[in-house]
TrEMBL record:
GO CC entries: mitochondrion; nuclear envelope; nucleoplasm; peroxisome
Entry keyword Glycosyltransferase: no
GO biological process, one term: cellular response to oxidative stress
Family: Belongs to the short-chain dehydrogenases/reductases (SDR) family.
Protein task: NADPH-dependent oxidoreductase which catalyzes the reduction of a variety of compounds bearing carbonyl groups including ketosteroids, alpha-dicarbonyl compounds, aldehydes, aromatic ketones and quinones. Reduces all-trans-retinal and 9-cis retinal. Reduces 3-ketosteroids and benzil into 3alpha-hydroxysteroids and S-benzoin, respectively, in contrast to the stereoselectivity of primates DHRS4s which produce 3beta-hydroxysteroids and R-benzoin. In the reverse reaction, catalyzes the NADP-dependent oxidation of 3alpha-hydroxysteroids and alcohol, but with much lower efficiency.
UniProt organism field: Mus caroli
Protein name: Dehydrogenase/reductase SDR family member 4
Chief location category: other
Gene3D superfamilies the record matches: NAD(P)-binding Rossmann-like Domain (3.40.50.720)
Coiled coil start-end: none
Pfam families tied to this protein: adh_short_C2
Amino acid sequence: MAAIFRPIPWAFRGSLCLPLSARRFSKTVDENRSLAGKVAVITGSTRGIGFAIARRLAQDGAHVVISSRKQENVDEAVTILKEEGLSVTGTMCHVGKAEDRQHLVTTALKHSGGIDFLVCVAGVNPLVGSTLGASEQIWDKILDVNVKSPALLLSKVLPYMENRRGGSVVLVSSGVAYVPVPKLGVYNTSKTALLGLCKSLAMELAPKGIRVNCLVPGIIKTDFSLREKTMPNMLPDMNKIFGVQRLGEPEECAGLVSFLCSSDASYITGENIMVAGFSSKL
Ligand SMILES: NC(=O)c1ccc[n+]([C@@H]2O[C@H](COP(=O)([O-])OP(=O)(O)OC[C@H]3O[C@@H](n4cnc5c(N)ncnc54)[C@H](OP(=O)(O)O)[C@@H]3O)[C@@H](O)[C@H]2O)c1
C-alpha cells in the first residue's frame, strides 16, 4: 500500500521540466503545445485509428514514428503527413516479429534520440467462427499480435523511457472486451486480456514514472470494422439499447490518446477508457 503514496516522479509534474533531447519536431506546431519535444512510436499506424492518432500526436507537437507490416503503406502514410508539415518518420514493423520490434525501436532512436510515448494500435482478427473451433495457430496469432506484442515491444522501449525519467503508454482494446460479439470469441478474449495487461503494467511501471492506459473504442469507421461484417450489423441493436446514433470516426479516438500522453493526464494511469458514443458499464 505504501507504494501508492510515493511522491510523483518529477517528470510528471509538468512538461516544462522535461528534457528536450529529440532532434527533429514538426515545424508547423507551436513549441508550447502539449507534446512539443516528445517522441512517439505507434504500431499499426498507416491507416484507420493508428493513422489518426499519428496525425494528432504530430499536430500536437510530437515527432511520430509510424509503422505497419507493409513498407509501401508506411511510405504512403509518411508522405501524407510530411506534406502536412508534420514531423514523422516510419519503418516496417510486424509487431508479432521480434526482429521487427527491435528494428522499430532502433529506427526511433536513430531519428530522435529517445522515446516518450508508445501507442500499441496493431491488432488482428483472422477468425469469424466458434471459439472452441479455433485452431492452435489462430489462438497463437491473435494472442501474439494483440496481447503479447505490446508487452514485448514495451520491454524494448522501457530503458529509453527510463532514460527520459518517464513516459506514457497507450494500449488499444475494444468494446468487445466488455460485451463480446458472437463468433469473435478469440478476438474478444484477446481484447479483454489487454484490459488486465493495462492494469498490471500500470502498477509495475508507476514507480518509474511511466503511465499505462488503454483506449477502448466502440465501433469505429475503418477498413477493419467495415471488413468485419458482424460489427456494423450490430449498430441497429445498439441503437435500440444505448441510443448510439452513428459509427465513430478514427479522429474521435485520437484526442483521448493525445490527452493521455500529455502532462494533463499526469495523475491518470491504469485506466481503460471507452470511446464508443455510449458505454453501458458503470
Ligand atoms: N475499427 C473498429 O471498430 C475497432 C473497434 C475496437 C477496437 N479496434 C482496434 O483498433 C486497432 C486498429 O484498428 P483499425 O480499425 O484502425 O484497423 P485498420 O484500419 O484495418 O488498420 C490497421 C493498421 O494496423 C496495421 N497492422 C495490421 N496488422 C499488423 C501487424 N501484425 N503488425 C503491425 N501492423 C499491423 C495495418 O497496416 P498493414 O496492413 O500495412 O500492416 C494498419 O495500419 C486494432 O487493434 C483493433 O482491434 C478497432
